[in-house]
Amino acid sequence: MILRAWLLAAVGVAAADEGWSFWSSLRLVSGFLGLDHLREKKQRRAQLAIIGAGFSRTGTKSMETALSQLGYQIYDMRSMLQLGHVEGWLEAAQTWRRGNSTALEKMLQTVEELGYTATLDLPMNLLAPALAEIRPSAKVVMTVRPLEEWLESWANVNEVMSCLVVRPWRWLVDLNFNQQMLKVLYDFHWPYPEYPEHVRRPLPWFEIVTSLPGFEPSMREEWLQLHRRLQQDLEPMGRRVLVFDVRQGWPVLAEFLEVPIPEGDFPRTNSIAGMRLARRVLDVLAAALPLWVPLALWLLWVLMLQLCCCFLRLIPRMNLARRIWKWKHPKAKTK
Predict the structure, then answer these.
(1) Does the keyword Transport apply (predicted)?
(2) Domain range enclosing 309
């Protein structure tokens, strides 16, 4: 409740300043914290039809918008957080690596029962080969962009949203599962910032990342190799896989999905501006952490006071006693 009140106030100010719509900004921030209930509204049961294999910053947000226009329900990292599925997917990945797909099939059934028909983005893309094996009828779309360009953009986003892996946000949402999924499925070590080597702590409850060990020059080739390795894992699936650059637009995607080409241009959704806005909001909330409780109590007091005032104003107009008497004596006649 306190967090929601702060989000409403802080996002509203920032959104107005940046020209972003209030609700779009609110939902973006809420999604990172697992609070976007509207986005994860339960749908009718459906079978997984699209498996997204592209990494973040390869056009996955444009793909999300495009697939939503085509009627697909998207499941991604925000869905995992909102629905509390993180531990389930970690267990599924671990058992699948040991040759047992039971837990993975169970998690997939859970997702399908909620009506999701497409998966996208990290870390779900890491499971693309496994999901494609379990659902042979599903098509796989791997969004791509020039590798060097992708890595630079991926590093920039991690720098912008690095606040989520330090205090106070890591107390609320644990994003270590991305790190764990990479280790389990591809034996890839993604070092997170640690205090005090990579993190500054201006306040006991507020930390700022000063450097990203996961994107130092020594890690550059490892990220590129990871990208290539996932793409190679999908090659044996042949025509089931579309390696797609969103700049190719609707014709290529629509032909692959065997649907009519929609009217209008292909979506071009670049969420880096939204992430910068989210970062500003999260920093304001984090720095003001000790004010949350007194602010919430003050807001509650103001609300109760307003309700009492409204009620007192209504009493003289309602002729309350007469209405109560009529209710108790419905057959009585009044002069």
Answers:
(1) no
(2) 293-328
